[in-house]
Design a protein that fits this description.
The protein is of the alpha+beta class. It folds into 2 domains: 3-75, RimP-like superfamily, N-terminal (GMP Synthetase, Chain A, domain 3, 2-Layer Sandwich), CATH 3.30.300.70; 86-141, SH3 type barrels (Roll). It is 22% helix and 42% strand. It has helices at 3-11, 46-63, 86-91; strands spanning 16-26, 29-38, 70-75, 96-101, 104-114, 117-122, 127-132, 136-141. The protein has a 5-stranded antiparallel beta sheet with strand order 7-6-5-4-8. It has a 3-stranded mixed beta sheet with strand order 1-2-3, covered by helices on one side. It is globular and about 50 Å long. The protein starts with a helix and ends in an 8-residue tail after the last strand.
């Protein structure tokens, strides 16, 4: 069962973008974490988190994806916001991002999106580094913007 797609189906009509769904297990305890943003790119409020949790919680109850009990949480993007789409990188232009590509990671300043590539400025000898969006395994903000974006 694809919980990410289920979360998108439940939450996008309500105006939320599902940034990630993370399922972890520690011993016999399982945790389902859903990180959301607003499609209108405004800040995520406590009311937004509650509304999304209520809507997707009902869908989880209907889907019944696990045989054992689990803890369910919905969060705003937070300080280490995931970056996954071209729009995410455009929105957070000029900020530092930690990027994982090919099993290795680097920190670079997002300089733009050109076609299907994200351009980063990497300190040191590398200068500009172009990475295909499809090659990025994971990316998160490595600094928080001065003002909401």
């Amino acid at each position: 069962m694809d919980l990410t797609q289920a979360a998108r189906d439940a939450l996008e009509p309500l105006g939320y973008e599902v940034l990630e769904v993370v399922v972890t297990r520690r011993g016999s305890s399982r945790r389902v974490l859903v990180r959301i943003d607003r499609l209108d790119e405004q800040g995520v409020s406590v009311d937004d988190v509650g509304r999304a949790a209520g809507a997707f919680g009902l869908e989880l109850d209907r889907l019944d994806p696990f045989d054992d009990p689990y803890q369910f949480e919905v969060e705003s993007p937070g300080a280490e916001r995931p970056l996954a789409t071209a729009r995410h990188f455009e929105r957070f232009h000029d900020l530092l991002a930690k990027v994982q590509v090919g099993g290795a990671s680097f920190v670079g300043r997002v300089r733009g999106v050109e076609g299907d590539e994200v351009v980063f400025e990497v300190e040191g000898d590398e200068g500009l580094r172009r990475v295909a969006l499809s090659a990025i395994e994971r990316a998160n903000l490595a600094e928080w913007p001065d003002a909401p974006r």
